[in-house]
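Example 3.2
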Amino acid sequence: MWEFLWTSDLFYHKVAVFREAKLWDLRIEEKKKLLRNGLYVAKKEREDFLFLSNGLKVFCSEAFPKGQEKIVQVLQEEREGKLAEVSQKIEMTTPYFVFFPYERGVHLSRKIQEKEERERLENIFQPYRERASFLIRTEAKGQQEETLKEEIQKMLKEWEQIQKKAFELRERGNLRTSLPWMEEFLEQYGKEEWKSCYCENFECQELLEKNLSFYQKRLREYHGDISLWKQRKLEEQIAQLCQEKVYLPSGGYLFIEKTKACVTIDVNRGPAGLHASNLEAAKEIPRQVRLRNLAGMVVIDFISNKKSEERKEIIDTLKREFSTDNHFLTWGGFHEFDVFLFSRQRKGKELSSYYDKNNVFYQVQCLENECKELLEKGENILSVEAEKNILQEWKNSSQCGIKDSIELMCKDEKTEKKSFNIKIK
């Protein structure tokens, strides 16, 4: 059974997943950056790049008419100096089908093999095929006609609202009110296996109730004086994830090192036997890769073992522990040099991009940048409410004490720039 803890502050959503009280997965998302799978209005002003309505520059490999505005979807977020990539092909996923607004037709998953069921589903979606294209997912099998039609109408209405936001209301941000990353993140754990989801503030609760209605029954509010994030000692666990050395229960350890070319993991034996140490490492490595959100080529140097049966057991253990991972994995197997190779799809940022080796959350710079942006817009950020909210968020954050003051700037009535050095107590 899965247990979820969702909290947020001024700049981030943070979701922790627990399995049998053990931290299993972690997701951190910036609120104001481009959201993967988010929808934005784009316009081509130069030959090589597009500019979104919020002013951000992005890359698109498809032909795009110059000077024309179109709705695009973010395929890949900005990372390591590379621009975010967008596409004109829009895909919007629901529990029962994938919606393609710019295409026409009805298609079914190959896993739905029963002839009668395929015909039934095709007849349900047939009246809507001229309005969009639908790829019917396996989850639609056996669902009531009313349920499917309600979901179709809901998606068509959402698409109409998106177009209105884009071309009539001229909204600059993400055109979708939902959080695509959150839907994708939660669905990988299976709806029926949920135990509970704790929301630490009203913002999280409202988003969950509005966009992920299925999970309302398992929603739990928390109003305690001490944050659940601190109660579960998540900062301490994250501090361990920022270290290269990971100790195993038997006394052995892993040494995880990231290079520009790949991620290397060295397995070191403890008092346990050779094969037992390898199996223990095979169970822990997927958890470490998932929590750190490591991607690209991964090279594992298991303790040398030539027995084919034991190697097969190691591979089966790795695949089983990765079974809930929604990143695409390519298995390379054991190499002739006795190392095991596999690759993992890159989605989002690595944990190390938010925390350093001393477990300092990079919120200081974000807060300063936010204040500078407000200054450039000519807004007085030190109004009574703004000052109160900023300081309260700062005090509530896990970084209270890392920096004892922060400089905030604003403009006074005479439009002269002033700076304020606020002490954090």
